[in-house]
Amino acid sequence: MAVPLVFELIFVGALTNALVGADQAIRLARHSEQILTQLNTITNSFDRQVSISTLFFLTRSDKKYDQYRSLRKIQDAELSTLRQLIGEDPQQLDNFDRLKGKLFDVFDRMDRMVDTVHGHSDWTALGTLHVPSLIREVSQRTEDVLSAISVITTLEHERNQRYSSGEKAARQLVSVWLVAAVAGNMVVCLALAIFFGRDITTRLGTIVDNTFRLRSKTELRKPLRGDDEIAYLDRVFHEMSDEIRATELKRLQLDNLKRDFANMVSHDLRSPLMAIRCYLENLSDGIYGNIDEKGKTTAEHMLSSLGRLLTLVSGLLELERMEDPTTKLELQPEPVRELLQDVTEQLRLLAEGKQVGLAVAEVPNGVCVLAERDRFSQLLQNLVSNAIAYSPPGTTVDVTCRRQGDQIEFRVRDEGPGIPKEQQQDIFDRFKQLDSASKSQAESKGFGLGLAICKAIVEQHHGTIGVESQSGKGSTFWFRIPSTARIDTSGTPASVELNSE
Fold first, then answer.
1. pTM score, two decimals?
2. In 4, 282, 395, 498, which residue has its Cα 20 to 30 A from 251's Cα atom?
């Protein structure tokens, strides 16, 4: 790190020196220009003063006399300004003193001439007052004044050219140093890149490789040594990996525990629950003897609750079968038109009871999809029945399909309350339901297994499923499954895609 620092210090010092030289040359050139400008002002004022004095001599006008006196005061101020600009320059100071002496000599004669003429109205008397001789003396000494001004002007012109040349040379020097600095920096940067590049690339490659290892759930490479930022990043990455794996392990343990418990309960409870159901049905039918109305009502309530419990158990068993990797559906081409008609005919009475319209798009004959007919019907029934249940009276549920490459996309759209964005992420998980405000739109509560079963069925069909929704503006559930025989049979799960409008 010392090499680039020394280089930068040398560059800064040389550039500063060049800039100081350029600045000094600029200041001297500007100062010389100010002196030349002031000399030009004095010359113009002097010429004007001589002209006004001549006009006054010819006209003896009081106005010209006042102009002469005002201009006389201005000349004194202009000389004072020139003296300040010259400063302590000995050569120009001598020239200034000579110019000042000659100017004051001319001013003295001009003042006497003007005052003499101003005090006498008789032209014949002016000759005896030496006015003609004063005029001749003013004319002679005017040339001396202009000569003194020319001496100062010539010297300042020479200096100005010299300063301008110095300024140009200083600017060129600055440009040279800037070009040298850019070239030097490029060389230093290239050298540093070559020097440090290999080590940095190797260390960064380790972190990149660890990201792939983390994604593939394989062992990470050993932590990098050192106290630099890359080593710190690698240590943080290892800590994050450990936390992710610990969290994943806990989640898998909880999921397995939850799954095992649900499977155990569903298997162990199904037979006793069926037996209890048969007993309650017999009791309600009077097989065990007549019972009063209160008893019948109680039995019917018990049968209803038992039916819901059996539905939960059946759903868990169904979900277990669909998620079993050994379960393989017999997929074959099925006509989309017939599949949609069968499902919508089965649910049309449900829609009419809810006063909800059910619109199914026309599908041409010959359009087929690879599906297992019963599972596909179960999938579509779940989605359409959910849409009907959550739709307010007077609205319509639309069922459409369209081709997406080598897949068929089915869409079920309702005009219900919609799904809040924060609930869409896990809507396809087990036992996940909408909040109470949204659930109040449906006729009855479920157990949060319907959409999980839908996702499992789509996975068995090697497809994808998702939802597009915005709270208060309805929802659209969609899924895509292949329409040709070219499908991935590796058992890759279906992905769930979310798109909040």
1. 0.44
2. 498
